[in-house]
Amino acid sequence: MYDGTGTSDHVLTVFRRIGALLEGHFRLTSGLHSTGYMQSALVLQDPREAEALGAAIAQRVFNLGAQVVLSPALGGIVIGHEVARGLGVRALFAERVDGKLTLRRGFALEPGEKVLVVEDVVTTGGSTRETIEVARAHGADVVGAASIIDRSGGNQAIDVPYISLAEVSLPTYQPDACPLCAAGQPVVKPGSRA
Fold first, then answer.
1. Region 116-135: what's the mean pLDDT?
2. Rounded distance, CA 83 to CA 63, Å?
């Protein structure tokens, strides 16, 4: 089990041990292609691992004073719930309706409520930014964002304080410039969005 130290090495050891760091030719949720994929669902299927990772994130963001955690469905739901548990606050998720993230299921945010956006893996930051906009559209104050893995190379362009437990550098390519496509290697879409 993850020991809660919050170091990249510990987190990546867990991903490797569980077989959640995949190699091949992948189409990411962002549309980019990559030689590697972080399948965090394989890690988060173990409640002990999920709880430990959530507690580690909660410890790092506690000072932000979040009153609620908001995550994008599907990948952010489990880790968002565990971070909320660690902070002792509510856990909500936004889901896609006609391609756009929105709050459903009776979830609501109050104007001025302090929100932490939590994801499993950030590549371009697109889902995180979209989730931030959902919160802001409800008048909430987004105090920060967090993820287990940052594979953006520091290029996520998130406009609130952002932390991750681990940074991973895996190459990404635009589909029309992907060397794996050029070599005829079939592409796999393992994420939660088709």
1. 94
2. 13
How many residues are present in the chain?
Answer: 194
Q: What is the pLDDT of residue 194?
A: 44
Phi, then psi, of 76 in degrees rounded to 5: -90, -10
Percentage of the chain lying above the pLDDT 70 cut: 95
Tell me the pairing of strands 90-97 and 100-103.
Answer: antiparallel
- Residue written as token pair 């979209």: 130
Strands (E), the chain: 21-27, 33-38, 68-72, 90-97, 100-103, 114-122, 141-150, 162-167, 172-173
Measure the CA–CA gap between 160 and 131, rounded to whole angstroms.
Answer: 12
Q: CB-side exposure of 120: number of CA atoms within 13 Å?
A: 26
Rounded to whole angstroms, the Cα distance separating 36 from 82 reads: 26
